[in-house]
Amino acid sequence: MSPTHERPDATTASVVVLGLGPAGRSVTHLLARAGVDVVAVDTAPDRPWRPTYAAWHDELPAWLPPTVVSTTSPARAFATSEHELARRYCVLDTVGLQQHLSLGGARVVAARVLDADAHRVHLDDGTALTADLVVDARGSRPDPTLAQQTAIGVVLPRSSAPMLEQTWFMDWRRDNGTGPGDPPSFLYVVPLDDEHVLVEETCLVGRPALGFDELRRRLHTRLAARGIRLTGDEREEHVRFAVEAPAAPADPTTPTSTARMPGGRRPTTLRLGARGGLMHPATGYSVALALDVAERVATAVADGTTTASDLEALVWPRPARRVQALRAIGLTTLLRLPADGVAQFFEAFFRLPTALQRGYLTDREHPALTLAAMASMAARLPPSLTKVAVTSALPALPSTASVTRRRVR
């Protein structure tokens, strides 16, 4: 069934979803599949997705069919030494994923949102939408004051060089024309399919992040040092997004909108994806989490839960809030590290047991595991870098630790 594109003067639905990126499209797809009356709004709902989405294989939700996974491979990393990672790394088929998340059964409106609250959405053409629940999945707002991740990538034939036969999650070697005091960037290499590979130079986090021209220069220098000459005709991929997003409210009933409701209460939308801070603040990873959360939300709505505060408690249970706070400390540490300390930081990370690596990168249910990973890393760092990690944690750690202790007794 194809989606119905509508532009009525007024529309009432059970759920209105704003934005049709991975977070919005997946929740719309799952709601419609469950028989929920859903309207989706996007300025260009049929626009093809362009980014390359990737995740650890064990992060992908069970409802996602294997056909949307383009490649799965073992991954390697290089910080100050080389590491073989135990978890398998997946690149999703971007076209296949978008097609699988069909909008059949949903009503789709092509328009720009002017304002939205818990139950009402006003569009730029005068359309007014009313719903029991409004889900805001329009991505993060551009803000140059926030820490960002940037990258420049090129798509190459896998046969171009032996190094392209391996998946490199991170390669921090300085063969990109930089010195120890320069802001660091790493090489990221993933197979897109049997014949093509994406090779990126990535600034993990920066405030400000490295610009595209500098990253392009570094990528060309690095590839030339490894025997790969670019022709200039390669397809480029540009990446820029904020890794700092609006924090989840401290309490599920805390309002997130400035619009007033009768009686003095302020309504709130349910924010998903990057809009709701559902990304790893120290790595920017978000797609697998968006797909997992979409299923939880759609199931709850189909079962009769349509209050944004109740659903936000589902999206952000207390353990997940504590984990996110701990990971935000990791972001602060990365931003404060000296340039020549970043590779040592990741050397400590890649030396962690796989369970602790997963606890820091993926797990949202066990704050104690995340805290153990961070403590173990701090113990492995040189004293000067341990000091940076500890002082980054001090302002937030007491409240985080108290919650963690209560959960592990």
How would you characterize the overall build of this protein?
By secondary structure, the chain is of the alpha/beta class. The chain has 3 domains: 4-45 and 103-138 and 245-315, 3-Layer(bba) Sandwich (FAD/NAD(P)-binding domain), CATH 3.50.50; 50-56 and 66-93 and 141-244, D-Amino Acid Oxidase, Chain A, domain 2; 318-408. Helix content is 32%, strand content 25%. The chain has helices at residues 22-33, 94-100, 212-225, 287-302, 308-315, 318-336, 342-350, 354-361, 367-380, 383-393, 397-408; strands at residues 4-5, 10-18, 38-42, 54-56, 69-78, 82-92, 107-110, 113-116, 120-123, 128-136, 148-157, 167-171, 186-191, 196-206, 236-242, 270-271. The strands form 2 sheets. Strands 1, 2, 3, 7, 8, 9, 10 and 16 form an 8-stranded mixed sheet that branches. An 8-stranded mixed sheet has the order 4-6-5-12-13-14-11-15. Residues 247-266 and 401-409 have low confidence and may be disordered. This is Lycopene beta-cyclase.
Secondary structure blueprint with pairings:
Layout: E1 4-5, E2 10-18, H1 22-33, E3 38-42, E4 54-56, E5 69-78, E6 82-92, H2 94-100, E7 107-110, E8 113-116, E9 120-123, E10 128-136, E11 148-157, E12 167-171, E13 186-191, E14 196-206, H3 212-225, E15 236-242, E16 270-271, H4 287-302, H5 308-315, H6 318-336, H7 342-350, H8 354-361, H9 367-380, H10 383-393, H11 397-408
Parallel strand pairs: 1-7, 2-3, 2-10, 3-7, 5-12, 10-16
Antiparallel strand pairs: 4-6, 5-6, 8-9, 9-10, 11-14, 11-15, 12-13, 13-14
